[in-house]
Design the sequence.
């Protein structure tokens, strides 16, 4: 019975925390990223054998600016190793950041659909 009460309390508290987090509005958060000159970022991308797969204009939030700033966003994929990286470059084109990187790139429509709409 003692364990039941502890499990019930943990379950109740976990549900309360999860529901309060899920009910909040989206917010900008700081994440560690690797930033450097465009030459250094290019070396990192080339060193991983990444090929440009997608490019677009986006917005990035930084502690250095009060509002999101426009950036160029690139997705590079190594077709042999399935490594990938998302980089962003400032409008001046002289500084960039590797925002995310990983392994195991794939396009799986069902997984993407579930991430967008878990009820489907």
Sequence:
């Amino acid at each position: 019975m003692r364990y039941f009460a502890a499990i019930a309390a943990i379950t109740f508290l976990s549900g309360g925390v999860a529901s309060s987090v899920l009910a909040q509005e989206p917010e900008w958060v700081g994440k560690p990223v690797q930033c450097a000159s465009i030459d250094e970022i290019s070396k990192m991308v080339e060193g991983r054998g990444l090929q440009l797969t997608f490019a677009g204009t986006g917005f990035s939030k930084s502690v250095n600016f009060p509002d999101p700033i426009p950036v160029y966003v690139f997705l590079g994929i190594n077709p042999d190793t399935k490594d990938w990286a998302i980089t962003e470059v400032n409008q001046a084109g002289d500084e960039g950041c590797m925002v995310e990187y990983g392994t195991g790139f794939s396009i799986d429509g069902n997984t993407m659909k579930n991430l967008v709409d878990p009820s489907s």
Q: What stands out?
A: Helices lie at 2-23, 38-47, 109-116. Strands lie at 34-37, 51-60, 69-77, 84-90, 95-102. The radius of gyration is 20 Å. DSSP finds three helices and five strands in the chain.
